[in-house]
């Protein structure tokens, strides 16, 4: 998949062998990062007023097992990114909080806003590589590729279930979705020498971590669904997982889980319990994004006076 390129930029080398980034307390990266922080704060406050907390609390499972699995599923993504950038840049523990802000920015506003925030965060750290955009770009592309591969596998598994579950879904939509993802993935592989900046060994490492991240998040989310509704068939969870993964491939759609919940309710409206579960999970994820977003972005905004 990847080949070593003698001309590739040594983006993964330690800070002792690369020029440090210039430190700027009020440079353009600070202003962009601050603007994104404010945007996330505003988005969190606006969406917070729309959450029906009473309805959500009434149907959230009370067992500790559900909450443990939910926490693992939520933090699996930032943890995977932390492992990647810890290897590439030796980022400190505080980088995990920056990666949480990245996740929340992508979810609350729109895709890749969080990546832009993380780019500004990396540019302000003198111990990072002198060209952080290349690494962030490569990680984002490989994240999408890993998600595409898992989505394709899920859709192949879900295809024979369309008729058995009698949900009235047009199988042609699944077919065209598979074709589109195959075309996109093939294009990335075809132009990999132009698209990627990291050395081959780092690309393989990033790909492995991203695959593990996607699979872990998928399994843990399905486990949450099972803990909440253990009587439902695994076939339904496979189909819903395929739908959720497919919807997540839309890069500029905020609150994907809310949209997914609405789509799931529309598709399986005859199953009130499942529809209620999807709506509850979407609300729970949104509240988690909002709560952590307000806490993390608020703490960052409070620290502006110290700079």
Automatic annotation (TrEMBL):
Q: Which residues cross the membrane?
A: 28-49, 56-76, 96-118, 139-161, 173-191, 203-228
- The name this protein carries in UniProt is Flippase-like domain-containing protein
What keywords is this UniProt entry annotated with? Membrane, Transmembrane, Transmembrane helix
Organism per entry: Sandarakinorhabdus cyanobacteriorum
